[in-house]
Amino acid sequence: MQRRWWTWVACVLTLLAAPVRGAEPSEPPGAGGPAADAPVTAPATGAPVPAAAPADVEPGTEVAPPAALPVALPLADDSAAAALRADLQEVFASAGLTRTVTAVRVLVLPEPLSAASARVVLDLEGGRPLVPASTMKLVTTAACLDRFGPDWPIRTHVGRLPSGDPKVPWDLAVVGGGDPNLSGRFYDGDAVAAFRRWAEVLKHRGVTAVGRLILDDSLFDAALVHPNWPADQREKWYEAPVSALSFADNCVEVHVAPGEKVGDPARVWTDPATPYVAVVPNIATAADRKEHRFSLTRREEPGPAGALGTMSLLAAGRCWVKASEGTEDRTVFDPAAFFGLTLAATLKAEGVDVAGPIVRGRVAGPDGRAPEAFICDILHTSRLDQTVAVANKRSQGLYAECLLKLLGAYAPAPRPEGLLPPRQGSWKTGTDEVVRWLTDSGIVAEGCVFDDGSGLSKENRLTAACIADVLRIMHARHGDAFVDTFSVAGRDGSLRGRMRNTPAEGRVFGKTGYVAGVSALAGYVRAKSGRTLVFAILMNGFPMGELWKARLAQDKACLRMVDY
Questions:
Q1: What pLDDT, on a 0 to 100 scale, did the predictor assign at position 145?
Q2: What's the number of domains the chain is made of?
Q3: pTM (2 d.p.)
């Protein structure tokens, strides 16, 4: 067997995979995960038992085996598959991760229009449940996309209700639809662009003043932050609270720049500018670069009785006089308040006065239907496929969690006649629907545990075989509509910096995963032969400082699959 590829791959990827400190882009820099000396493992049969949770917290959803298991896929026994199998086994055996539990499943998909089934190229501990990190997003997004379809609209309703005040006859109501796309991401960086458009529609309809601004965020339950997410990372962007009324990723971007001269106060501001956040600046401009150090601390500010709260941002420290402008993200405490206060300020700036107050309240009836007096002025929609792409390419946790709760809310009635479905979205209803979709699709998930939608909870468990089957079935049902939501090696998303300038660039479509001690990669490879391979790699329990070894092994495996 020729192994000339091996030396070349090792040289190229060693240069690309220098030791990594902290997190890869678009992945959290540590969210629990296994300790370095205690690899996370789960029984080969039965479900792992989650850690004890508070009495009012429901544990993750565990999956029992389907009543009738699907027929096992056949082994790929041709010479090319045998050579690939041997080479992949060598990649993982020589990775230098002797204390790491590695699970791998590789399938070769049938050729287009073929009646043949997928075949197994490699299975290493494929049925062993392990912590999946962000590859959990693949299961969440697959279930949502398959249940609803790529063009399913995520709907936000904006309309009027009679105020009872003859001077200002209308209140304005916003019924949140769980849309995470209301940000600058699709508006050239202008976070309030959608709000400006809403103002133009209202003015076109003759509405230049409203009384109350009513915020209905009842589509999702009141749990904004998952109880099994790391409590010491609440302010990080990847732990953004989850609300049916979300805005700007439920984060503010904080900018810090030095003053004009030493001793001047540094400049501190937020984007978007919002009355929800009050900056308390206490950063001085310093002459010595060694003194360049500052902190940005959030503080929740409860409102008076019946009023929405706000947030203070305490900025303290020293900023070097020659430093470039820096930015950091901070999550908000109350997404609906952030949404409402920013919307009201934008409407006023655009010529629609909001007399106030801004209140939280249910607009839809118990059955989800609008009251007769409600006039819907704006139906803002976002496509499901573009939302899935952000969750998978960028590994944006907020998007995955919104999708999970949307699945929980809408799965029984994807296109309700009213403003909202009768059922509320929650982590429990969402994970229940994921389990139902897996069972309906004939995917074996024995031992798997579903605790959230993004993979940030360390209570999640998946098997490489389960992930590979999800990818196989989604390719058969949706083809490129699903594949195109993945990051592309060397090109974009969380794989932008990996496998660049190698034969794998542009041929590997993957979803990365990382929490402390856990690294994962799963997706598709379009081989030079024209065949498509599915792969899932879960690696748990590597010691601190050896993340680069795990990623190097994953990249070597992908490069070898390209040559299949």
A1: 98
A2: 2
A3: 0.89
